[in-house]
Design goal:
This protein has 53 residues and is of the alpha+beta class. It has one helix at 15-20; strands at 29-35, 41-47. The longest helix has 6 residues, at 15-20. The radius of gyration is 15 Å and the shape is flat.
């Protein structure tokens, strides 16, 4: 399930969950996309696990 944090409160799919609940989700990694000037997206994997660096 993917949604940008900037629009989660405006998407009908998520509006009920967003309005009535919050959660802390513990993950090992998450991806962040960097939009490049050529229109492509470079994917970065962010982690706190020093073994993966």
């Amino acid at each position: 399930m993917h949604v940008r944090s900037e629009t989660i409160d405006r998407r009908p799919t998520f509006d009920n969950a967003f309005a009535h609940g919050r959660v802390i989700l513990v993950v090992h990694t998450f991806n962040e996309g960097e939009e490049l000037p050529n229109g492509k997206t470079k994917q970065w994997v962010i982690t706190t696990d020093s073994r993966l660096r």
